[in-house]
Every structure is written in C-alpha cells, then in structure tokens.
Write a structure and sequence with these properties.
InterPro entries: NUDIX_hydrolase-like_dom_sf (IPR015797), NUDIX_hydrolase_dom (IPR000086). This is Nudix hydrolase domain-containing protein. Residues 1-128 form the Nudix hydrolase domain. Pfam families: NUDIX. The protein is an alpha+beta fold. It has a single domain (3-136), classed as Nucleoside Triphosphate Pyrophosphohydrolase, CATH 3.90.79. 22% of the residues lie in helices and 42% in strands. It contains 3 helices and 7 strands; from the N terminus they run E-E-E-E-H-E-E-E-H-H. Strands 1, 2, 3, 4, 5, 6 and 7 form a 7-stranded mixed β-sheet that branches. It is globular.
Length: 138
C-alpha cells in the first residue's frame, strides 16, 4: 500500500506555507508540501524532509504527527506539523515542476488563523477540517 506524507509548515511569523495549484479548467486550490514515500526513504519523516527539500528547497525542525487516514485510492496519508526554518521556492527540484502540462505551482505564506485557513480551497478537504478544529481549540 502506497504511503504519502505532507506537512503543515509553520513559520516564525505565525504563518503557514501552502502551494496554490493553478490548472486549466479547475478552480485554484491549495495543497501542503509533501508527496509519496519512496523505496529509498528511511521512513516517513525522512520522506517528508526529502519532499520539503525538493518542493521548496526548505529545511524543517520539530516534526510532529498531526493526523493520518486512508484516502479513496487506498493510500495512507500522514500529516505532520513542522517548523520551516528556510525555504527558496526558486531552487525547488521536484520532477512535477518541469512538466508544463501540470499547470502552475505558487508558494504562498498564509496567516495560521481560523479566518485564513477557512478561506483556503485546501486539498484534501479533510485536512482543512483538522486544521480548523485544531485552531479552534487553541
């Protein structure tokens, strides 16, 4: 069974990083940094660190499990929170960024508040609910 990892990347400015996807014929939506666990990864956290390096040329600390569930494709999705200490979207190296048929990827910094998260079209929608519940609980 395929496993996926994603991170709620929190900055020192009380914001979080999201990637806004812009694709022809689809309303823009946001995703969290992450992707599939690969055979060479030493575990979930190693896979997540690799994905952060690939997708935003970033480094993270304080990885903490947040939520996990099985998606409709039978994949287990593992979500973490993490502090992002550095990033440079211009230096990203993920293979998806070289494919022009996949649309645009825009890195955005969003306030980590109920109002801001509530206004996102965050995918998958389940993680938006988890984040809103977490923020609402303080």
């Amino acid at each position: 069974m395929k496993q996926r990892v994603r991170a709620v990347l929190l900055t020192d400015r009380a914001t979080m990083l999201v990637i806004t996807r812009v694709r022809p014929g689809v309303a823009p939506y946001q995703v969290l940094v992450g992707g599939g666990v690969e055979e060479g990864d030493a575990g979930l956290e190693a896979a997540l660190r690799r994905e952060v390096r690939e997708e935003i040329a970033g480094e993270v600390t304080d990885l903490r499990p947040l939520h996990a569930w099985e998606n409709d494709r039978g994949e287990t999705e593992h979500f973490y929170t993490a502090r992002v200490t550095a990033w440079n979207f211009a230096d990203r190296t993920g293979p998806e960024f070289s494919r022009t048929d996949r649309g645009a990827y825009l890195l955005e910094e969003v306030p980590f508040t109920v109002e801001a998260v509530g206004g996102l079209n965050l995918m998958p929608p389940q993680i938006k609910g988890v984040l809103l519940a977490t923020l609402g609980a303080g």
